Amino acid sequence: MKELSLRFRVFLFFCLIGIGGTLAVLAALFLGYRQLGAEEALSSFMTVGIVAAFGILALSTFVWRLFDENISKPIEAMAAEFRVRAETGITSAIDSQTARYLGDLAPAASAINEKLGAASRATAETVAEKTARLERQRAQLLRILSDIPVAVIVATPDHQIVLYDGQAADLMEREAPARLNGSVCDYLEESALMAALNTMGERDQSRRAITIKGKSGDVYSGHIRVFDDEGGYMLMLEPLNPDAARPLVYDFDLLEKDRQTDPNETPLRDLTFVVFDSETTGLDPEKDDVVQLGAVRIVNGKLIKAEVFEALANPGRPIPPASTKVHGVSDAMVADAPQFGEVCARFHAFARDAVIIAHNAPFDMAFLHRNNHPAFDNPILDTVHLSAIVFGGSATHTLDALCDRLEITIPQALRHTALGDAMATAEAFVALLPILEARGLITFGQVKAEMRKHARILEVQD
Question: So what's the pLDDT on residue 459?
Fold first, then answer.
């Protein structure tokens, strides 16, 4: 019973009342009929029984609907409000109208929220000051590094990338999409890399020169350095453009992550996600075509804004004006764009080894699956279902409604663009993640099992 939602348990309670009341009345009528002993009265007793049964069931249904609308749903909504404010930085006032029939519950909750919000704001100011100082130091470091003509990649002992700079990103993009937590072997020749590392181990070297081929066949040279205590290694290669900008993409927490082979047993934070959205010529995946695809990556529970995918696709036919009015993609914009098959192949490389997330995923995935090649066999999460887990099945689960509840602002210019909606969906997922964890939904498998309870919820609109 504990696994059932509050609303369903209340529904079962009223079912028990209705059925139990009906059975009690029928039993009483049966006993009365037997005591009376008049066969000619059977019709009258049956009439009374039928009317009483329908009356009790109708009354139970009516009272249950009132209770559901004014008690169960508000309690579910308030619980979601508590979770959101406990696990995110949202401090806005709780809407007391949500629980207007629950006595002092909403005002009391608002008072607690105001107290916690004041404490959170004070803490946030302190953190902001320290963060600003760290950002200044980081900017100074980048200015120093900019004068060093080296493309830097730092990787774990099992070759997962935990840092790369802008010049390394240029080099990586020549081979495959630049991806934090991706494998170095997706870009560089694995045999040469392993040979260099093995030689360094045999000779007890911490640094040596290296010449290595990329997957494209291009040759890169530089140095490789192994960290102490099996802490991974760093590649320092000659950059393609020594004067290029050097923004850093990194997460050193990845050095301490244990890699799991079974996604279902893996904590959500340890998974890599690609959040994507598509804009199309219409709403029928069987007949319509994609005109724009946008995506962003999430690694270690953090949005990696430097790793985005955005591409227009030529649908091979005119885009309906009604569709252009929604997403802003016109025939002129896609005239020189590649076919969707080419875009799909590039996106497949971008989403390699990641869990795919979308809002109303069946709709967007239908277009990818229809392309047939390459095959997308990535695990899937749907933020519609995640919204239902957190906010209850009775809430509205459009992307706009979800972002409003999480206080995520979608710039009007980016709404209904593939990358803009993908970015908003990614921010929503990052905000939902600690709430799911607080509810005991830690691993991917646990979340998938909970999502199945809300499988009937699908939003046509995004």
Answer: 47
